[in-house]
């Protein structure tokens, strides 16, 4: 029953913020279920695929998904996820943790400053828009392989700040784009035996219910409120990466 509630809370968080929910799911599974860290990571990636599917479907109901943007983001991420995984084996974990934490805090501050960054708030079109999305996907894929996270937060920041997406559409599109990336990572961990299959029958239903609820709330929130909440989550996550050890993937 604990796995259902972990899925419910993590799914609600992921649907609300347009992220996979792994930053919450992993510590909950580690603390409450006493699973090994690498197993928490692998199991979380399986669940994150369902977060993306349920969340994208909920946002799509409110017309907050750009399918072409999601496809370009996913294509960019696929090109770099394995490179990030290879690099993560060569760099000290404390350095990776601090760098990613500082990066999250930096982009959250940029997001809060968006109203004053008028030149970054104009919607983009054509090849420039495609280039921005490909770059966002590539950075996301690399960081996903490097840090063992789904990377939806990075996609959202690229879409909102550099491509002029509104917050809800950015979150819905990021959830959809994160599905193939998380499936790729989950498949690798499944083959390595880093997935606790016994918890999935309770975890996944909780994820589905929580994600739909979180996405429904996010779709009906005013954009400035949602942006503020999203930035606060990024800052909190960044501080966590600066203070506490996090799992870095060992193999993809």
Polypeptide structure, described:
With 252 residues, the chain is mainly α. The protein is 77% helix and 0% strand. It is built from 10 helices and no strands. Helix 4 (67-88) crosses helix 8 (167-191) and helix 5 (93-112) packs antiparallel against helix 10 (223-243). The model is unreliable at 246-252 (pLDDT under 50).
Q: What share of the residues lie within helices?
A: over 70%
Distance between the termini: 30 Å
Average pLDDT, to the nearest integer?
78
Order of helices and strands: HHHHHHHHHH
Q: Characterize the quaternary organization of these chains.
A: single chain
Shape: globular
Taking the sheet with the most strands, its summary is:
none
Give the gist of this structure.
The two termini are 30 Å apart. Helices cover 77% and strands 0% of the residues.
Notable features of this structure?
252 residues; 0% strand; disordered C terminus; mainly alpha; single chain
Task: Give the helices and strands, then pairings.
Elements: H1 2-17, H2 22-32, H3 37-61, H4 67-88, H5 93-112, H6 126-147, H7 152-162, H8 167-191, H9 200-219, H10 223-243
């Amino acid at each position: 029953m604990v796995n259902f509630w972990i899925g419910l809370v993590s799914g609600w968080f992921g649907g609300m913020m347009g992220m996979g929910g792994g930053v919450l799911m992993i510590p909950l599974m580690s603390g409450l279920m006493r699973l090994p860290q690498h197993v928490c990571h692998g199991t979380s990636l399986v669940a994150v695929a369902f977060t993306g599917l349920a969340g994208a479907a909920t946002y799509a109901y409110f017309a907050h998904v750009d399918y072409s943007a999601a496809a370009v983001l996913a294509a960019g991420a696929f090109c770099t996820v394995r490179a990030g995984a290879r690099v993560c084996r060569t760099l000290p974990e404390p350095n990776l943790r601090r760098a990613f934490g500082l990066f999250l805090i930096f982009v959250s501050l940029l997001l809060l400053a968006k109203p004053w960054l008028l030149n970054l708030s104009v919607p983009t079109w054509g090849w420039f828009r495609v280039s921005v999305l490909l770059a966002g996907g590539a950075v996301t894929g690399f960081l996903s392989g490097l840090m063992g996270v789904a990377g939806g937060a990075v996609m959202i920041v690229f879409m909102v700040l550099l491509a002029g997406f509104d917050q809800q559409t950015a979150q819905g599109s990021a959830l959809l784009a994160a599905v193939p990336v998380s499936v790729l990572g989950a498949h690798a961990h499944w083959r390595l035996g880093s997935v606790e299959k016994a918890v999935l029958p309770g975890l996944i239903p909780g994820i589905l219910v929580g994600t739909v609820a979180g996405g429904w709330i996010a779709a009906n929130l005013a954009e400035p409120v949602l942006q503020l909440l999203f930035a606060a989550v990024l800052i909190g996550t960044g501080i966590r990466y600066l203070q506490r050890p996090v799992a870095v993937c060992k193999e993809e």
